[in-house]
Amino acid sequence: MNFKWLGPVVLLAAIYVGDQIRINRPGHKYRLIVEVETPDGRKSASGVLAVHPYRGYSGIGPTRTVGDAVYVDLGGGKNLVALLAHIDKNLELEGINYVALRAYTAAAGGKRVSFNEMNRQTGVVPVTGALIPVLVTFSDPANPGTARNVQPDEAEAVLGKGYRLHGISAEAVPNGFWPLDFGGVLGEPVTRAIQAKLPWLNGADNSAATALRAAGLPGVEAVDAREAFTRK
Fold first, then answer.
1. CA-based angle 79:83:84, to the nearest 5?
2. What 3-state DSSP class applies to 57?
3. CA 215 to CA 145: how far, in whole Å?
4. Whether 83 contacts 147, CB under 8 Å
């Protein structure tokens, strides 16, 4: 066997793999936490999202978020879902990329926190005002047509007496040893749970758009509706 080219081939492979990790590694990860007051006490759920700035070679590209919407089981057949979407006149999907960044900036008294500084942030910070994602609830999670929009300060009007949004918060978490971040010392992986809660997301039809329309959200036709619930 001729080993003459083994060294250069291994070196090129290492360079390629290292460059792919550089390009695709998250800029930062954060945990989005949703807490709701119910007649039976406070209920909460959270999910880890990864934010990937563009690092390719073809000029300027999009920042993207990987992860799932956060589903809070409130008991008694009730639920609240924080989508990966906001409303800016119409439904928009880009704001979720900057939720943690802007929340930490607000918590710092408006002193700008950059993307490169996010991995050095600690503690839990509130997500308030325009940073709060779109909230919806499903009277029947198996039926996308039962979705209803929930305004952050009017949860009781939709969910019933005694239900109130306690708050939404963000917490920066380490990137870990991406792409080997399988949990534990390797780092927290992106949370994947929404498809188990909303089984119609696994279908080939556009049930996600049906859900967003049922909730009365504007501009559904202009976005990829499924990305309001899950992104890869």
1. 160
2. coil
3. 8
4. no
Decide: helix, strand or coil at residue 63. coil
11 versus 85: the higher-pLDDT residue is 85
- Examine residue 3 and state whether it is found in any structural domain, yes or no: no
DSSP state of 188: P
Q: What is the DSSP letter of 100?
A: H
Q: What's the domain range around 92?
A: 26-231
Say if CB 214 and CB 146 are below 8 A apart: yes
Confirm whether 18 is domain-assigned: no
216 part of a folded domain? yes
Average pLDDT over residues 112-126: 93
Indicate the average pLDDT of the chain.
91
Of 167, 101, 94, 107, the C-alpha closest to 135 is: 167
Q: Please, what's the b/e burial string for 33-49 (b: 16 or more CB within 10 A of its CB; e: otherwise)?
A: bbbbbbeeeebebbbbb
Q: What is the pLDDT of residue 205?
A: 83
Please count the structural domains in the chain: 1
Determine the average pLDDT of the residues in 36-57.
Answer: 93
pLDDT tens sequence across 166-207 = 999 999 999 888 788 888 888 899 999 999 999 999 887 899
Residue at 19 is within a domain: no
